[in-house]
Amino acid sequence: MKPTRRQDLKTNELSQQIEEIRDYAKENAAKLSGIFVVVLIIAVGGYWYYHQHQQRIMDGWASLDRRVTTGGDEVPVSVYESVVAEDLDAALTTQALLTVGSATMAKTMASGPLDPDSATAEELDQARTAYGQVVSRYPQDVTATGQAMLSLGIIAENQDDQETARSWYQKVVDDSRFANYPFRDQASYRLANLNRWAEPVIFPVAMPTVPEPPPEIAASKSPPDAAVTKPPSDFTFILPPSPAEKAAEKAVAEATAAATKDNAPTKPTATTQPAGPSGGTNAP
Length: 284
Description:
Layout: H1 3-27, H2 29-70, H3 77-86, H4 90-108, H5 119-137, H6 142-158, H7 162-174, H8 183-198, H9 215-221, H10 243-262
């Protein structure tokens, strides 16, 4: 078969297929339009859902960031708990659980060992639950897991449960995941000092104090107001002159005395008159 004939046959086959597709589209136009509309709706809906999901994740991170920017005092713990409940993203939920734990611990740890029936002990139980979820649900996040396990040991230590605290610290030390993390060193340090920290602090006996005398005795021993010499209102303190000032004053005094002596008038001397006949002096 000649090449020209073969090319003509291929062209005819292609034209026939295009014609068949055109005829099928005309016969099933309504069905094809419906399928196109459904695909378009799915695509638009998927994009809208993805965009809303990402926006909610960003809002969740913004809620956690408020604890850093405001110090956490103005943000209730329920805000972080709502982020945990939505569970939009594993990293976000993990951080929200850690924030719930740290926020509740910050309110209770300053008061020392707690009464198991107190309200603050309930908040500490809330922190324990949050950290426990991090350990059980997200073990692949080594940093979050190490932080949660150490915090669980500190909570037990604060509630005077030394055995539970020791157990958590030992788990951190034995876990190979923390070989290159500081959590192992921190746990070892707390294990080494756990017994010493558990001992009660004994303060020395206070020194006896002398009671203050009654007011009437104190008044009788105090000097009367008349005996207290008070300087006048225009009284000023005069400092003694320095050696240089004394030398200058002496030089001025000597110079003044010398000038006074040179300028003093000469006192006239008395003249002796010849004696008179009566033996007295003759008056001039």
